[in-house]
Structure prediction request, 281 residues.
Amino acid sequence: MPVLRSQGLDVVTIGRGDTADVRADLGTTVPDLGGRSGWVLHAMGHAHSVPKTEAERSAFRRVNVEGTRNVVRALEQVDCPGIVHLSSVAVYGRAEGQDLTEDCALDARDPYGVSKRDAEYVLQEFAARRGCPLLILRLPLVAGSRAPGNLGAMVRAMRRGYYFRIGAGEARKSMVLAEDIASHVPRWFGRSDLVNLTDGHHPSLAELERRLCEQLGRGRPIAMPMSFARALALVGDLGGDRMPFSTARLAKLSTSLTFSDKRARARLGWAPRRVVDVIVP
Prediction:
């Protein structure tokens, strides 16, 4: 929000937090906009957790899908000149691949990916019915200060001295800077499209590790041989959901998954920075 406000925008926030201008639990409540109208940046979402129970799995649908329905119900009562929606590349349901485009099938099977896909459908139906511009931005791992998710876990492990590289760290992952997204969004209000956003560089895990170690003042991490990592993952599989490391987790860390942002560059003038040049843990 500070980046948006720094561009002179009058930002009204909706959420559960004490600092929100409009207080509402969107997963259960239609927010009262008080007649306000204007461009909508829909960034709400439940993420960065692996569900272990049915209640945890249903939370993704309640927040991401039903929460989006409640946003739409609120927008039905006001003038809405356009929506920018922050979605996720998780909608593709892919564990590996290179330069995947927006034309890939939406094969998500996990609760998070399915919920983000269905949230897109809710907004697309509303936009088509109302003739409202809708721009869907599908994001990979988002980097920035105090980043959540896998990047945040990597930083915490490095700070505490128990981070290990898996093999040579050659797997490449698409990433994007949160600040770059925020700085571009105001230029895109009123646009209708569906695009992937990345930094276009897709750093390898080894490259990302080197950059983070430099900034944290840490030495190069110890490399865990792949043979040992596979054995450890098998032990994790036996422990079920309680274990932090498994064959599935190993596959995620050792395979490349990158997405193409050529459509965003050509149609929207997307000009991001490389994450490894800017990232601050």
